[in-house]
From TrEMBL:
Gene3D superfamilies: 3.10.20.740, 3.30.70.20, ADC-like domains. It comes from Streptomyces werraensis. Keywords: 4Fe-4S, Iron, Iron-sulfur, Metal-binding. This is 2Fe-2S iron-sulfur cluster-binding protein. SUPFAM superfamilies: 2Fe-2S ferredoxin-like, 4Fe-4S ferredoxins, Formate dehydrogenase/DMSO reductase, domains 1-3. Residues 188-216 form the 4Fe-4S ferredoxin-type domain. InterPro entries: 2Fe-2S_ferredoxin-like_sf (IPR036010), 2Fe-2S_ferredoxin-type (IPR001041), 4Fe4S_Fe-S-bd (IPR017896), 4Fe4S_Fe_S_CS (IPR017900), Mopterin_OxRdtase_4Fe-4S_dom (IPR006963), MopterinOxRdtase_cofactor_BS (IPR027467), PSI_iron-sulfur_center (IPR050157). PANTHER family: HYDROGENASE SUBUNIT, PHOTOSYSTEM I IRON-SULFUR CENTER-RELATED.
Length: 286
């Protein structure tokens, strides 16, 4: 028999979403409610295991009485609130944000961005060939994962996952100002010389592919990475007795990367270095 934990009961709030009355548990964000009723709101910096940082501003909506557009990922639903998600003002804001992001960094490996660019008729090339762009070579300074800051949108998710929200290693932070701001380790040292413990939880939350397994990076470079051919199998990590869940991504009978289910009550998507990267012995053919 499966027992579903009931948790602490939450009061239901009533408010208006795009002219329709809705009810949502107290503490829900506007984005939570939109997803619950099937409204597709684009977002890049929001993560289901992290506290929203309001960094990307792609999910903005209009709230009656608010002077500015508000981020749906962090604004809590309130009783009597009137929310409009598809107004001209909100759509124009999303369009401009997408154009600015896509013109400054490489979003080719960011899920759904191509779809959103088309939906909002965003044209990143309208800024011309002289638009400022992050052109950095990928940093390959260890055997486990690659840092490609040319794809980084500074969403802060990796910093939060490494810091006080999960790992508490504090190996990375944002250095520099303005367009020169980058996620970096202390003194911008090579990763092996930093405090990084290679848990890979930063990779788990990265929305753009700026952080990726070396195996994925190499396969993409070779043109062999194909998620449509990959199977996903969730199992239990055998390294210790904690019971962390692993999802093995397998292509052509080879494990190409490991993730963890975000809804797992043990790990919430987080792993240690053994669970995340210690899979090579499984497919050692020697």
């Amino acid at each position: 028999m499966t027992v579903t934990p009931l948790g602490i009961p939450r009061r239901l709030l009533e408010f208006t979403l795009d002219g329709e009355p809705v009810r949502a548990p107290e503490g829900s964000t506007i984005l939570d409610v939109c997803r619950a009723v099937g409204k597709d709101i684009p977002t890049l910096c929001e993560g289901d295991t992290l506290t929203p940082k309001n960094a990307c501003r792609v999910c903005v909506v209009e709230v009656e009485g608010s002077r500015t557009l508000v981020p749906a990922c962090s604004r809590k639903a309130e009783a009597g609130m009137e929310v409009r998600t598809g107004t001209e003002r909100a759509r124009h804001s999303r369009k401009v944000v997408l154009e600015l992001l896509a013109s400054s960094v490489d979003l080719s490996t960011t899920p759904r961005v191509a779809e959103w660019l088309k939906e909002y008729e965003a044209k990143p090339d309208r800024f011309g060939p002289d638009a400022a762009r992050v052109n950095e070579e990928p940093r390959v300074d260890n055997d486990l994962y690659v840092r490609d800051y040319g794809k980084c949108i500074l969403c802060y998710k990796c910093v939060d996952a490494c810091g006080d929200q999960w790992q508490n290693t504090f190996a990375i932070s944002v250095a520099g100002r303005g367009f020169d701001a980058r996620v970096a380790v202390e003194h911008d040292a090579p990763l092996p010389d930093s405090a990084c413990v290679y848990c890979g939880n930063c990779i788990e939350v990265c929305p753009t592919g700026a952080l990726s397994f070396t195996s994925e990076f190499d396969m993409r470079a070779a043109g062999t990475w194909d998620e449509s051919r990959q199977t996903r199998t969730t199992t239990v990590c055998a390294y210790c007795g904690v019971g962390c869940n692993l999802t093995l991504h397998v292509q052509d009978n080879e494990i190409v990367k490991v993730t963890s289910p975000h809804d797992n009550p043990v790990t919430h998507g987080n792993l240690c270095i053994k669970g995340r990267f210690g899979y090579q012995h499984v497919q050692n053919r020697d």
